[in-house]
């Protein structure tokens, strides 16, 4: 069977992504996750998953957008590998797929934000030639 990357479209595919996404987004339970993703998909969000031997082991939520700052770009909202699947190349494969998908969709850049406490993720991004280009600020309303 091997490894494959696909976009989650059906409720079953979205639900299969939940155990991995829960590592990054613990505020969701399976029902609220399966309800939330289609709402976001209506606004351009896509959920990609990497499956190995029939099990989802890594997921990425992303969107393609256009801005004055970056032109057409792919923004990664969520990127996570299940804890037992780290250091097996799943994250690298999914990040490469995202970059290829961005190029295929005429994007000039790929962007993501990462929580300041996620040191392991930062090492991963830097090792994959990503640069720290800005600080992200937020105001809860």
Can you summarize this structure?
The protein is 33% helix and 28% strand.
Characterise this structure.
The chain is 33% helix and 28% strand. The chain has 141 residues and is α+β, with helices and mostly antiparallel strands. The chain has a single domain, classed as Aminopeptidase. A five-stranded mixed sheet has the order 1-2-3-4-5, with helices on both faces. The mean pLDDT is 93.
What's the SSE blueprint?
Elements lengths: L2 E5 L3 H11 L8 H12 L4 E7 L2 E13 L3 E11 L8 H15 L4 E4 L6 H9 L14
Helix pairs in contact: 1-2
Number of strands: 5
Q: Can you name the CATH architecture? A: 3-Layer(aba) Sandwich
**CATH class descriptor:** Alpha Beta
Counted by DSSP, the helix tally is 4
User: How many strands, which pairing sense, and closed or not: the largest β-sheet?
Assistant: 5 strands, mixed
Spatial order of the strands forming the largest sheet:
1-2-3-4-5
Average pLDDT confidence is 93
Shape: globular
CATH topology: Aminopeptidase
Distance between the termini: 47 Å
């Amino acid at each position: 069977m091997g490894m494959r990357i696909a976009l989650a479209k059906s409720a079953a595919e979205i639900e299969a992504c939940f155990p991995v996404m829960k590592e990054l987004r613990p505020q969701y339970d399976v029902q609220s996750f399966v309800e939330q993703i289609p709402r976001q998909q209506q606004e351009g969000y896509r959920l990609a998953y990497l499956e190995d031997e029939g099990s989802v082991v890594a997921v990425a939520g992303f969107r393609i957008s256009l801005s004055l700052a970056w032109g057409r770009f792919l923004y990664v909202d969520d990127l996570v590998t299940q804890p037992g699947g780290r250091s097996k190349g799943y994250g690298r494969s999914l990040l490469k797929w995202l970059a290829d998908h961005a190029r295929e969709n005429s994007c000039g850049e790929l962007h993501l934000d990462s929580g300041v406490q996620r040191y392991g993720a930062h090492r991963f991004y830097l090792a994959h030639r990503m640069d720290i280009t800005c600080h992200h600020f937020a105001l809860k309303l």
